[in-house]
Amino acid sequence: MTEPKEILKKYWGYNSFRPLQEEIINSILASKDSVALMPTGGGKSICFQVPSLLNEGLCLVISPLIALMKDQVANLKKKGIPALSIYSGMSFIEVKKTLQNAAYGKFKFLYVSPERLETELFLEYLPTIKLNLIAVDEAHCISQWGYDFRPPYLRISAIREYYPDVPILALTASATLEVQKDICEKLQFKKGYQSFHQSFERLNLSYSAFELSSKQNKLLTILKKVQGSGIVYCKTRKRTKEISELLQINNINADFYHAGLSNETRNKKQEDWINDKTRIIVCTNAFGMGIDKPDVRLVIHYDVPDALENYYQEAGRAGRDGKKSYSVLLYNESELSDLKKKVNIKFPSIEIVRKVYGSLCNFLQLPAGSGEGLSYDFDINKFVKNFKLDAFTVNSVLKILEQEELINYSEQFFSPPTAVFTTDKNALDSFEQSHPQYDDVIKGMLRSYDGIFDFPAVINEMQLAKFISLKKEELQKRLLELKAIGIIDYLPQKEKPQIYFLENRVKADDLFINEKNILLRKKNFEKRLFAMIHFLKNNRECRSKMIAFYFNDLNVRECGVCDNCLRNKEIVLSNEDFNSISAEIKKSSSKIPVSYADLYQKLSFFKENKIRKVLIFLQEENIITIDNDGMIQSK
Asked: For residue 377, is it within any domain?
């Protein structure tokens, strides 16, 4: 039998595995269910790709990220490994052909979205596909208590009915202990399953947070001081453009990126940044998933993320090559106040949910009792304007309607243009003779796309137009004309956000929403939000340790390079000062917990940095405890 390292060397060119990869692979080869918590850039894909190549059959990879699916399939094909993917926007015939290839071809990987698992066509072909592994990427999406819950993930475990002996590997970069346990429970892991946790320690990455009244000057200072490729994350699309323009005015090579741009534009901006034609990309969190750029020197958060999970994933895109890198978070007090208010916006009342639902159905002109299985283009800006609604509230309601499995809302929908001939070859020859103006388009399609008579081909309009010496707009016009005549079935490219109804429309007053679940999710959101605020405001503890502790990685040492560690290094503390401060701390907190403010008042003749240094030492030595509210108690 071929060894894992031989596969690694053959296809990836590496002589050895990264930490934990080999252990995870051996667990899968022993047919054990496994959950792996591996930070961003930790090499998760190799953990399922290597064992699948060692065994007969195909690996089913479940992922919500279309861009990541496409990238991984393309990379596997470059290595000579046959792989397939099914994603939104593919026609029925394309999906059927892909499933037939998975069942009867010599393919090793099939990438699908979780929603695809429930379709009638997928379930029809599933028993004919020989699986050797089920890999669940972004597995935290299965937990209602996680930061990105997606209901279709809950149905993944149903596949076990078809493949009771096939192991499942659940992969995530950021999940708390509670979410990790929920993942294993929801995927119905068998007794004896294995858990693997890669360390959250990133010794080459320096974390820092700055409270500022004005962020722009600090941003410019940092970008001029730290050279190399970078990412600036912003909360809104409008701000990405504004900040990008600010950087350009100050002679910093920058561009902006968000989900509202066309697919062609997004791809161009992304490629320019990856290839260092653009130095700084200013973007929303729509950017970064699955992008392999190891030499990012700097990630700046211009706005505060909602949770440490998001922050850690995004910050972790810096320094994957192991070289010195920086993650900087800029914030102000008013922003933190707005974040706390966001809780009620993100989880509106049931009355507001029903109102937005009713308005949405009216906007799409959806009659009562219909809608199931229908998809609509959705212009959220027009909707908000027409019905005088708040955009943030509407987005929150759409998320709730998704989690209640009433709709699917795809903001980054992309469906490439497809075409298929709807006439036979004899009829086509006759048509060409009587309509010579279409001859170049027809011949160009026949020469460029094999099997275009049998099933729809994805058309690269730019490439085809160049091949037949036409402008792209003229090609599109002729394709639409051929469709109108009945020679081809042509579906133009679609990039508008989509609303897909999973249930028929009901009266807004009759809409059932599980209020208990929403309140529980709200409580968990608040918990994550306050952990994020604590991370920002705590200027005593090592930031790397704070992140690791949040994810239950308790063995991480102080990084020595974050802003807090560097500040603490500057403090010179004599034995006399140490003894005086520690004695007062123990005395003040021996009977009841004491707040830091009260303690500082009693020790006001000492510098605050010295008090903090002693507190950190006593906490690490387990002499005192400091809870999430900052209350100090001697043991």
From this structure: yes
